[in-house]
Amino acid sequence: MAGVGGAMRQPCTGVILAGGLSTRYGGRNKALLQVGGRCILDRLFEVFRGLFAEIILVTNRPEEFLEWDAFLVTDLFPVRSSLTGIHTGLFYARQPHAFFAACDTPFLQRGVVEAVLEGIEPAVDLVIPRTAAGLEPLCAAYSKRCLRSVEDHLRRGLFKIQWALANKRIREIPEEVLRRRDPELRSFFNVNTPEDLVRAEALAATERAEGER
Questions:
Q1: What's the whole-model pTM score?
Q2: Domain 12-212, CATH 3.90.550.10 — does that match?
Q3: What is the pLDDT of residues 97-132, one digit of tens each?
Q4: Among residues 109, 98, 111, which one has the least CA distance to residue 137?
Q5: How far apart are CA 132 and CA 150, in angstroms?
C-alpha cells in the first residue's frame, strides 16, 4: 500500500482483535453488538477499508465472521489476553508493521489512526497514543520486530503489554495531536459493560445529530 494522503511512510497491516470472552453479554462477541444501528465491527471496517490493503481479524470463533472481507486467524497461544492477540496479528501480518484496534471501540476515528500511521518509521518499534488516561496499546502500530519479545513473554506467562515492550523503541503520539483529529477522544471509548453500551447509543445519537447540521 503506497500511502494515505502521502503521509504513511511504511506499508501496514490492519488488525482487529475480536477474541474476548464477552461474559457481560452472555458470551456474545462484542464486535457484533449494535451501536447506532450498525454493529461495531462494521464501524471499524469502514475505517480500516480506507487505510489498509490487508485486514486481519483475530478471533477464536471464525465461523461468526465469514461475511467480512478479512483474513481470519485464531490465537496461537491458548491463553486469552490482549498480548496473545497482538502476537497472533504480528505473526500473520505480511507488512512490516501492524496497526491494532480492539473490537469494542465503536467510535474509532480515521484521523486518529492516520496520526498513528504517520509516526511509523523503520527505526521505530511501536507508535502509540498517550492520553491523560495513559498509553493506548490497542490503538497502536507495532513493528514485526516486536514479535519475538511478545512471544517470549507469553511463553513465560507474562501477559502485560507494557512488560513485553519495555525495551522497544517507542514513539508516543501526544493527546494534543490526537485531539486535533478527535476533539473528544471518542476513539478510545470501549464498550465493556451494558452501561457502556447505553452511553455508546447516546454518543451515536449525538454523532447523527452533528452529521445532520
A1: 0.91
A2: yes
A3: 999 999 999 999 999 999 999 999 999 999 999 999
A4: 98
A5: 26
